[in-house]
Write a structure and sequence with these properties.
The structure holds two protein chains of two kinds. Chain A is of the alpha/beta class. Chain A has ten helices and eleven strands. In chain A, the strands form two sheets. A nine-stranded mixed beta sheet of chain A has the order 3-6-7-2-8-1-9-10-11, sandwiched between helices. A two-stranded antiparallel sheet of chain A has the order 4-5. In chain A, helix 4 packs parallel to helix 5. The longest helix of chain A is centred in the C-terminal third of the chain and has 17 residues. Chain A is elongated and about 70 Å long. Chain B is of the alpha/beta class. Chain B folds into two domains: 223 residues, Rossmann fold, CATH 3.40.50.300; 56 residues, Alpha-Beta Plaits (2-Layer Sandwich), CATH 3.30.70. Helix content of chain B is 37%, strand content 27%. Chain B contains ten helices and eleven strands. In chain B, strands 3-6-7-2-8-1-9-10-11 form a nine-stranded mixed beta sheet, with helices on both faces. The longest helix of chain B has 18 residues. Chain B is elongated and about 70 Å long. The chains are: A alpha/beta, B alpha/beta. At the A-B interface, helix 3, helix 5, helix 6 and helix 8 of A face helix 4, helix 7 and helix 9 of B. Chain B: InterPro entries: 4Fe4S_Fe-S-bd, 4Fe4S_Fe_S_CS, CobQ/CobB/MinD/ParA_Nub-bd_dom, P-loop_NTPase. Chain B: It comes from Desulforamulus reducens (strain ATCC BAA-1160 / DSM 100696 / MI-1) (Desulfotomaculum reducens). Chain B: This is Cobyrinic acid a,c-diamide synthase. Chain B: GO terms for molecular function: iron-sulfur cluster binding; metal ion binding.
């Protein structure tokens, strides 16, 4: 079972939900994997005490010029649709930060002067704390492309183990790379016009990806029906409500997962998982 | 003309609340929402849209099945796995044109792809440029550049000395576009362990753009120890902490109501943001 956690926007409580869900599930499962796919700002590791097992780098091929073979014909600059190559009077400039690694330049270079050369764009770290395995992706600073790092994190999993994926914010390419082909997506939101706006964007995105979803309302306040009304209209289940509570915020600030600061939540997260399982098999 | 961009590394730290309040305090700025992926500033400032423009984010490949000779080279060579069984998945296609170039039978075309819209609006507090990226669309960095370009044009046309931009979360492509050429990056953080971690990363990113950076700690009284660590970390990186906003009920209220906190009468949150604004304009010299 692969469950992704997304939110449309950052700061709504994705990491809080993902860590607590994973920590609750290790009670009844031989092992659980938690993936931090918010590779621009990975934070899950701040909430767990783990022993690092290994670290691998993620590389993408970018063009490298062999000056001896280059005849300065300019074909590569013409072909590159991302303006990553510029032809100067007698040299070629390559801008790794804008290169999409599409391979068109070396494919079409008539003299074979361009060849792929690996550029490190991020890392994948694996660590273990008891039955919980954490796989963290980290985008290198100054690199724009997070999807390849997210795919590398997802490529490092054991497919038979229960997997929880903490996704990045937003509803464009990085989130899609994190949630696509998961069995279910839990959307975390808060009962404000902002939360509703971002939630509806995320729901639309999941429709495109054909991933079923349900909603957790974080910082819930009694008497506010904004999200409830929306979910009813869209036929989305509300899986859990976490109240607006200064004590929860304070514990989170210190880096203590919700199920550790108040263990009564463990059962609620186990129930949440059962609800999700039922939704998936429906 | 000066430009201020509010960023945070992570979403949910209060960027939009702060920028929305800044807009009400400034009276002499072009307001910009660079968080095109999940634009929210319009929920606070309720802009009246004057112009709507399509955003062409690039091209997508298309296969004419009548011409296709089923050779399979496009599928084999596409590095984004965007072609399967002679069908292009538009969400995976990056429009690089490799398939177009190699197709031996001329069956592939590259078509302009509309991936969102951008708008020029009027608000009670000045002109606003904002955008909406289509669902599941990429290339947000390019859209951010389009928004900022138009904001600069408006500032020049109307002789407005300042542009204030709400930035996107993260450190990736849209953030990089939001920081290019800005004069000042105001980094909003909160006293959590994540806040500290994210702030350190985003300060390093901002440093590569050569703009002035300053930090504001939102909900600073949530955790004294983390707040102190953030101040120490900022000072070590040579970035001043120019504002501290308390964890405040009125700020939560303003979010629930979708109104800038500065419009909710005298309150602790509003006065902290007003002080912060004075610091910002002082540093920018506007």
């Amino acid at each position: 079972m692969k469950i992704s956690v997304a939110s449309g926007k950052g700061g709504t409580g994705k990491t809080l939900v993902a860590t607590s869900l994973a920590l609750s599930l290790i009670k009844n499962n031989p092992s659980v994997q938690l993936l931090d796919c918010d590779v621009e700002e990975p934070n899950v590791h701040l909430f767990l005490d783990q022993e690092p097992i290994n670290e691998t780098t993620v590389s993408l091929p970018i063009p490298k010029i062999n000056e001896d073979l280059c005849q300065h014909c300019g074909k590569c600059t013409e072909i590159c649709r991302f303006n990553a190559i510029t032809l100067l009077k007698d040299t070629i400039l390559i801008f790794p930060d804008v290169c999409h690694s599409c391979s068109a330049c070396w494919h079409f270079c008539p003299t074979g002067a361009l060849e792929p050369s690996p550029r490190e764009v991020g890392t994948v770290q694996i660590s273990q704390s008891g039955k919980l395995k954490l796989i963290t992706g980290r985008l290198n600073l100054g690199v724009h492309a997070s999807p390849p790092v997210i795919k590398a994190v997802r490529g490092a999993i054991d497919t038979d183990t229960v997997t929880i994926i903490d996704g990045p914010p937003g509803s464009s390419c990085p989130v899609m790379a994190a949630v696509e082909e998961t069995d279910y997506c839990i959307l975390v939101t808060e009962p404000t016009p902002f939360g509703l706006n971002d939630l509806s964007l995320a729901v639309e995105m999941l429709k495109v990806l054909n991933v079923p979803c349900g909603v957790i309302i974080n910082r819930d306040v009694p008497g506010n029906h904004l999200i409830d009304d929306y979910c009813q209209e869209k036929g989305l289940p509300i899986l859990l409500r976490i109240p607006l509570d200064t004590e929860i915020a304070r514990a989170y600030a210190k880096g203590i997962p919700l199920v550790k600061s108040s263990p009564v939540w463990t059962e609620k997260f186990i129930d949440l998982y059962q609800q999700v399982t039922q939704e998936v098999t429906k | 003309m000066k430009e201020l961009t509010v960023i945070s590394g992570k979403g949910g730290t209060g960027k939009t609340s702060i920028l929305g309040s800044f807009a009400t305090l400034s009276n002499k700025a072009v307001i910009c929402d660079c968080d095109v992926d999940a634009a929210n500033l319009h929920l606070l400032l309720k802009p009246d849209v004057q112009e709507t423009h399509s955003f062409i984010g690039g091209v997508k490949a298309n296969i004419n099945l009548e011409l296709c000779s089923k050779c399979g080279s496009c599928e084999e060579l596409c590095r984004f796995s965007a072609i399967k069984e002679r069908q292009v998945n538009p969400y995976a296609c990056e429009g690089c044109g490799l398939c177009y170039g190699i197709c031996p039978s001329g069956a592939i075309t590259l078509n302009d792809h509309q991936s969102g819209h951008w708008y020029v609006s009027e608000t009670q507090w000045g002109p606003m440029v904002h955008a909406k990226l289509g669902i599941a669309e990429g290339n947000s960095g390019l859209l951010v550049s389009a928004v900022r370009k138009r904001a600069r044009e408006i500032a020049t046309e109307r002789d407005i000395p300042l542009i204030i931009s709400d930035g996107p979360p993260g450190i990736g492509c849209p953030v990089i576009s939001s920081l290019a050429g800005t004069d000042m990056a105001l980094i909003v953080t909160e006293p959590t362990r994540s806040g500290l971690h994210d702030m350190e990363r985003i300060i390093q990113v901002a440093a590569t753009f050569g703009c002035q950076a300053a930090v504001c700690i939102n909900k600073y009284d949530l955790d004294t120890e983390n707040c102190f660590s953030i101040e120490a970390a900022a000072s070590k990186l040579d970035v001043p902490v120019i504002g501290k906003i308390p964890y405040n009920q009125t700020l939560s209220q303003s979010l629930l109501q979708g109104t800038p906190v500065t419009l909710l009468g005298q309150n602790e949150g509003a006065s902290a943001i007003t002080k912060l604004w004075q610091q910002v304009t002082g540093l920018l010299g506007v």
